[in-house]
Amino acid sequence: WVALKEYIVKLYTYPKDELEKENLNLDSIENVANQLEKQISLKSELFAESYEKKKITWRTIQAFLKPDEAAVELIRFRYRDNKLTDKIIYVALIVTELTTEEPEIVILENGDKLEGWLYKIYRDNLKSQKPDSESFNVYWSKIYNLLKGIKKVYLSTDGIYNKINPATFYAPDGKYLLEEQDIQICNSTKDIIVNYYKIQKESNLLNSAELFGNPTFSFSAEKKNENGEKHFREPPPPYPYMKGDSVSGFKLISLPGTENEIINIGKYLQSKNWLVETHLRDDATKSAVKSVSNPRVLHIATHGIFLPDINSENGNIFGFENKRLIENPLLRSGLFFAGAADYINDANSRLGEENNGILTAYEAMDLDLDHTELVVLSACETGLGEIKNGEGVYGLQRAFQTAGAKTVLMSLWNVGDESTNELMSSFYDNWVSGMTKREAFHQAQLDIFRKFRIPYIWGAFVMVGE
Fold first, then answer.
1. Are 79 and 89 in contact (CB under 8 A)?
2. DSSP letters of 304-320?
3. Which of 83, 285, 324, 348 has its CA 20 to 30 A from that of 420?
4. What is residue 296's three-state secondary structure?
5. 8 Å CB contact between 358 and 393
6. Which residues contact 411 (CB under 8 A, 6 or more apart)?
7. Residue 16, SS3 per DSSP
8. Helices 417-432 and 437-451, interaxial angle, to 10°?
9. 3-state secondary structure of 112
10. What is the C-alpha to C-alpha distance for residues 415 and 258, in angstroms, rounded to an integer?
11. Nearest to 420 by CA among 456, 384, 386, 466
């Protein structure tokens, strides 16, 4: 099945005429892969354990909550009223120890605004460091009013709530939610129970880490010649954003700060007797990532990408036909590794799938991470994914968890090297010293908050999973 999926990825970049010449029907091959995936999942012992059909109600979840804890499940859906007006609505279901007859229900009827201009205001205020009480009012106040006395919130997000960090909201009492509540994001509030009963068949007792950073996005002419690649043109001048379906002029800027991040983390873990493999510059390749096997920690510091809208089925982006990108959002989310700029900016490039420098979420699902405790995605906008009714985020987070990672620590937006280094150093120090991952991360956020009170800095990272 894995080999078949890798074969499909290769076919995505084939010109139509070559596919027709070889008499290959990509849709049929994809259908075979999907059916095979279902059969494997149904026969998998791990699948049976994880998805055993048990009736879990809100009362079951309530039994696992402490007096100062709450479970909040956010749901996004489209609603069509009597006037046949189609609009987006968000509903929050809230359970605490005091819940009696049924979960408290909060309805937010302005979903279109929450996903549109209100989200833009939220991001703009974070970037410009403006005080922002409005985002708290529109996104959280109704929920907050039902969480009096609650110190820990298990929050299952959906839709636009996957793209914001509630800890950055500025409450009416003049404090950020980070100071008042420990908001722990999970895929589903059911995870509270699943994690409690989870049987660790094979604990990863080996403290090992694979660290990736500062990839060489464009190889030197000498390096290209060594690889047998010819006729590369110089990449065009940098453009800060991509517009529409075009990647003309798209340039990946080098990330020297991430090299310091990787070196510092590697030195610290080695001082604690961890086995550490670092992959920097030319060695930070896609093939090296795909070859990792169940490290306790996989830390990746590079550029991430998500293509939210494809306006036309014609053309291609990053070697993938637009039609395929529209059909499969997992191809629109990915990470860039060594050589990626050469592949993107050279229309005549014939780099193979293994060397194109772009690891899509579709490919990340097949990484060997069944016994990996933590994946850290220290990159720009790696937490973003498609907002899709009933399915939540189809981004890198879910891909790495599908591959087996227990927890994913990821960035929602790009922040400075200094603050990222400090947060990561504080997190690893707390965790390796004995705290749980969640405790270590929350404490690291508080440490950065005390130094940089700007929410855009300390609120950039979220932790999802176990």
1. yes
2. EEE------SSSEETTE
3. 285
4. coil
5. no
6. 304, 377, 378, 379, 380, 381, 382, 383, 420, 460, 461
7. helix
8. 140
9. helix
10. 11
11. 456
φ and ψ at 100, to 5 degrees? Answer: -115, -75
CB 111 within 8 A of CB 126: no
Nearest CA among 204, 192, 201 for reference residue 45: 201
Q: What is the pLDDT of residue 188?
A: 80
Q: Is the dihedral of CA 61, 203, 426, 158 positive or negative?
A: negative
Average pLDDT over residues 343-348: 66
Tell me if 302 sits within 8 A of 258, measured CB to CB.
yes
pLDDT tens figures, 146-165: 998 899 999 998 888 988 99
Task: Choose between 411 and 92: higher pLDDT.
Answer: 92
466: number of Cβ within 10 Å: 19
For 270, the 3-state DSSP assignment is: helix
- Strand ranges across the sheet with 297-301: 104-108, 86-96, 69-80, 152-156, 182-186, 461-465, 407-411, 374-377, 297-301, 208-215, 275-281
CA distance 306 to 270: 34
Query: Which 3 state secondary structure label does DSSP give 408?
Result: strand
Angle between helices 26-43 and 2-12 (to 10 degrees): 160
H/E element holding 327?
A: helix 322-327
The pLDDT of residue 78 is 81
Q: What string of DSSP letters covers 414-457?
A: ---HHHHHHHHHHHHHHHHTT--HHHHHHHHHHHHHHH---HHH
Q: For residues 140 and 142, what is the distance between their CA atoms, to the nearest angstrom?
A: 6
Distances (CA, A) of 274 to 2, 189, 212, 260, 385: 30, 33, 16, 18, 33
Which has the closest alpha carbon to 259: 313, 299, 293, 230? 299
Q: How far apart are CA 149 and CA 424, in angstroms?
A: 30
pTM of the predicted model, to two decimals? 0.76
Question: Which of 120-124, 239-243, 391-395 shows the lowest mean pLDDT across its residues?
Answer: 239-243
Instruction: Give the Cα separation of 15 and 319 in Å (integer).
Output: 9
Find how far residue 194's CA is from the centre of its chain: 21
* Predicted local confidence at residue 129, as pLDDT: 82
What helix, strand, coil percent values describe the chain, rounded to 5? 40, 20, 40
Q: Angle at Cα 170 formed by Cα 169 and Cα 171, nearest 5°?
A: 110
- Bridge-based pairing state of the strands 407-411 and 374-377: parallel
Query: Between the CA of residue 176 and those of 134, 135, 168, 430, 446, what are the distances in Å?
Result: 13, 12, 6, 22, 11
Using alpha carbons, select from 374, 368, 342 the residue that is nearest to residue 356.
Answer: 342
Kindly state the greatest CA–CA separation across the chain. Answer: 71
